[in-house]
Structure formats: C-alpha cells, structure tokens
Amino acid sequence: MPRKTLIFGNGLGMALDPRHFSLTNAMAEVWADPVALPDVQKQLISQCVGGNGAIPEREDQLDPLHLVISACKTLASINMSQRMDVHWLSQEGQQFPVAVANYIHKVATRLHLYGGELPPAFLGPLIDFVRRTKSHVATLNYDKLLYGAFLDANLMAGYFDTTLVDGMIGGGFSSDSLERRYGNDYGYYLHLHGSPLFFDHHGLARKRDRHQLNPFSPEGSDHIVLTHVRHKRSVIGASMVLSAYWNYLNFCLSESEEIIVFGYSGDDLHLNDVIAAYAQSRHVVVVEWNGVAATDQQRHWFWTQKFKTTNLHHWYLPNILAFNQWEYNY
Q1: Which residues are within 8 A (CB) of 38 and not within 5 positions of it... i.e. 6 or more apart?
Q2: CA 264 to CA 187: how far, in whole Å?
Q3: Residue 325: C-alpha distances to residues 12, 192, 203, 272, 275 (Å)
Q4: Minimal CA–CA distance to 234: which of 245, 218, 222?
Q5: Per-residue pLDDT tens for 166-201?
Q6: What is the pLDDT of residues 4-44, one digit of tens each?
Q7: Domain edges within the chain
Q8: I need a surface site. Which of 60, 167, 274, 324 has the fewest CB within 10 A?
Q9: For the domain bounded by 4-17+117-194+239-322, which CATH number is listed?
Q10: Dist CA 169 CA 211 (whole Å)
C-alpha cells in the first residue's frame, strides 16, 4: 500500500485533556513554580513580554523575547571573537539566553509529562496502518502521546527491523542515520518542533529515554520551537536536528500519495508553505474539532486558502479521536 504522511498538531492532546495540553496553562504553571526560574530572570522575561509584572501566556508574546535573545547571543559572540576584557553584557544578560531556553524546556516538559494515554480505539487502527504502510509521522507538539505509544508498539526498533526512525541513535543525532541503506524502506518520525527529550552533550544532540525526563531536568536546548510564528523558521534553522527533520519532511511528502493533517490550527506559516508546495499533486485530508465557531463550509474554505488547493477533504468532528479512516482513499 502506498505511503501517506500524517501530521499531528496540539489538537491531538487537547482532544484528550484540554486543561493539561493547553500551552497557556503550561506556561503559567511553570512560571508559578518557585524553583523553575530565579526571580531575576523572571523580571527580565517579564520586561520583554510587556512589563508591569506581565507573564508569558502565548507564543505571540514571545516576539521581543526572541529578539533580545538574538541580541544577547550576538554581543556574546563579538566579545568572544575579539577577546575583550570587558563584556558587553552584565552577568544576567550573559545568562539570559540559557535561562529562557530552560524556561521553554520546562514548559515543553510539563506538556510531555502526562500520565494518560490515547484511547485504544484510536491508537489501534493508527498503529496498524503505520506498521503496514510505513507511512511517515510528523508531530508539532511536545507530548509523548504518539511517541510513547509507537515505542511501546515496537514501531521504532533497531535499524534493520523498524517501521519508523527519527535519527536519534546511541551516539547522538545524525542525519546520516536517517538515510535509507541496505534495502531498508522504513518511514520517518519527525519531531518538527522538537522535544524536551532532546539535549546537547559535548557538542552532540542526544535524546533521553522517556523515564529520564522529569520536571527538574536541567538542560534546555536549541531544539524546541516555542516562539512567535515569525521566528519559527530561524529557530528551526539554528538547530541541526530540526533542520534535518524539515528537510526530510519535504522528502516524506514527495513520496506520499496523501497528506493527513490532524488537530492542527493552521497558524504555522512555515508548515503551510511546505504542504502547499505538494498539495497540488497530492490529496490533503484535514481532521479538526468542530468547536471553533465556524461552519464546515467556512473551515473548508479556510484550509483551501492555507494550503492553496481545492484537492482537499475536510473532517469536522465533535471528537477527533473518533477518526479512524487512515486507509481511506479519496
């Protein structure tokens, strides 16, 4: 059976537990945690997102934060390259990018550490379909709902007997380990917006086992995309891991007969552009929750504009976890 590419957004988790998987809730809970960030770093972040005690609650607030981090990194690099005796930045300024990375990592960790699971009636047909077709899976969220279920179902095993790979091996991430060799025909699991399981160690990106991640895991990394939409491309470009995943997304779409977009808001322009590049020659299926105060016809039109195609089927459901038509051909 020909492959498909399945792209999952945060709507997957929201359909299961909207309180836990709300990004706004996760950001607020980490901010309120007395040990997550020192007060001086909270004050600096607050000034970036509006001042007067403002706290980060949404991705679109993080625009100035990203600009300040970029400026701090630039000034730090000038200081290092010219071996200056006096630093451009105070000690707090030098540590600011690390502090923000740790905050973002803790937000992603909060979303990841969820004790519940997707219902078997949803997972069973999905796992069977992916195992049989080696279809590609790409995620935009930070949870382990699919990743953990796929590991437990042995979909991500050794190189020679696996259904999916994500390029993370014992020695760290390598784009070479994504390359199919020796007759392998596995599909790809692409963490398009990164994962809190990723961390940097001696210059290499590595991945923790699931049991190794906890709320006190110290390392932030450059491998999580949590920023204003206009900066997402630059965050992706700064990460060797994420850049490789997005390059392989193009490959996945090129060899797929269909693209299924599940629980996605449509707000990430960088993803919309990639899908639109292939949507003229491949059928697109959108599965979304019907609680967004719009008619089916209005949402269908919304998606045809986002992906620049009329070759699209729209599932507008009260519960997207009831969807199981992975094999259906339109």
Answers
A1: 99
A2: 21
A3: 16, 24, 43, 23, 20
A4: 222
A5: 988 777 787 888 898 888 899 999 999 988 888 877
A6: 999 999 999 999 999 999 999 999 999 998 888 888 888 88
A7: 4-17+117-194+239-322, 23-112
A8: 60
A9: 3.40.50
A10: 17
